[in-house]
Specification:
alpha/beta; binds NADP nicotinamide-adenine-dinucleotide phosphate; two-stranded antiparallel sheet; 16% strand; 12 strands
Length: 320
């Protein structure tokens, strides 16, 4: 087994693997054919293959299914894993998403997350999203308080603009940011990434595989299940879909020369980008995370990186 490279999270003493298992798919809210047995096997497989970093959230599942499953899987090894969860987003009784980053709601969700995870502390706690009503400085004060009580080891922020990030950071120093980032969606390269590099803030990128598209197995002519929610994303619709398929043609050729899969090439490229500390790779089956883990140990020669960058330039899609 290849050792997965690790990274230090922000200004903490946490050493996390550069590939984390993303636990949204096992929440079963958008991914199809999710079941508990395979979800647990997926977490165990990640552990067996050396992943120590797991990413979940209060709202992953209608009743915290993702946190419950993670808690169950790590019950005997809690101290050797890095548990990241998030608060500030929940589901209303009618199923709609509510962003509530008020300190009282954050406290309720944090205690509930700990209960589900079977732990009394969390390694990384993110604010899942600013809520546009609560002053972000008030949300940040809550994280200062939790950290001073040693209930969390690192502070994270997700889905925030550069301005919101700066404001949060001025009240509560951020250790790790969690923005969207993948080959097709690179908007953070112009603002958040350079800021994080300057401040020494780690970056854990979500959607590295663009929900499976960049794993290279969803190609032209793919018959989507009508219940597959991915169809609602522009990148799964014409014209972005066509550009993405052209890009995948090029990536397939490059991956073939290295005798690796497209998913592994994409993970390796993403981890090679300046400022990217960790990729959060989602999976609902063991083989999926096993394939992506192998990508974390691939070193891309400069000539290959240039070929990939040329293909990205040729097939760039509008950022958004
Ligand atoms: N902070 C936030 O707001 C936020 C938002 C989104 C995600 N996240 C975090 O980031 C993580 C990653 O995002 P994600 O899980 O939505 O998407 P992702 O990692 O880009 O893609 C995961 C999906 O790709 C497919 N896949 C994975 N490995 C594969 C392989 N080797 N071959 C073929 N298909 C493969 C699977 O889909 P199928 O099996 O269904 O095809 C899997 O569910 C999440 O799990 C979550 O922890 C955070």
């Amino acid at each position: 087994m290849n050792m997965i490279p690790k990274t230090r999270i922000g200004q903490t003493d946490i050493d996390a693997t550069r590939i984390a298992l993303g636990l949204w798919p096992i929440a079963g809210m958008t991914s199809l054919e999710v079941n508990q047995a395979d979800s647990l096997k997926t977490i165990h497989s990640a552990l067996e293959h050396g992943v120590n970093f797991f990413d979940t959230a209060f709202c992953y599942g209608t009743d915290g299914e993702s946190e419950h499953l993670l808690g169950q899987a790590i019950a005997t090894c809690r101290d050797s894993v890095v548990v990241a969860t998030k608060g500030g987003v929940h589901w209303a009784t009618n199923g709609s998403r509510v962003n509530d980053a008020s300190p009282s709601r954050l406290l309720f969700e944090f205690e509930e997350s700990c209960r589900r995870l079977g732990t009394d502390f969390v390694d990384v706690l993110y604010l899942h999203s600013p809520d546009r009503v609560t002053n972000i400085e008030r949300s940040a004060e809550f994280y200062v308080e939790l950290k001073s009580q040693h209930r969390i080891r690192a502070v994270g922020l997700s889905n925030a603009t550069l301005d919101e990030t700066r404001r949060f950071h001025s009240v509560c120093p951020i250790d790790v940011l969690q923005p969207r980032y993948n080959m097709l969606q690179r908007d953070i390269e112009t603002d958040l990434l350079p800021w994080c590099q300057k401040q020494g803030v780690s970056v854990a990128a979500y959607w590295p595989l663009m929900k499976g598209l960049l794993a290279g197995k969803i190609r032209r002519g793919h018959q989507f299940d009508p219940a597959d929610k991915r169809l609602t994303y522009p990148v799964f619709q014409t014209p972005q879909w066509d550009r993405a398929q052209d890009l995948l043609d090029a990536l397939e050729q490059i991956a073939m020369t290295l005798e690796i899969s497209v998913a592994q090439l994409v993970i390796a490229w993403t981890l090679a980008q300046p400022g990217i500390s960790v990729v959060l790779a989602g999976a609902k089956r063991p083989w999926q995370i096993e394939e992506t883990i192998a990508g974390a140990s691939v070193k891309l020669p400069v000539s290959i990186q240039s070929q990939i960058n040329a293909a990205l330039l040729e097939n760039a899609i509008e950022q958004g």
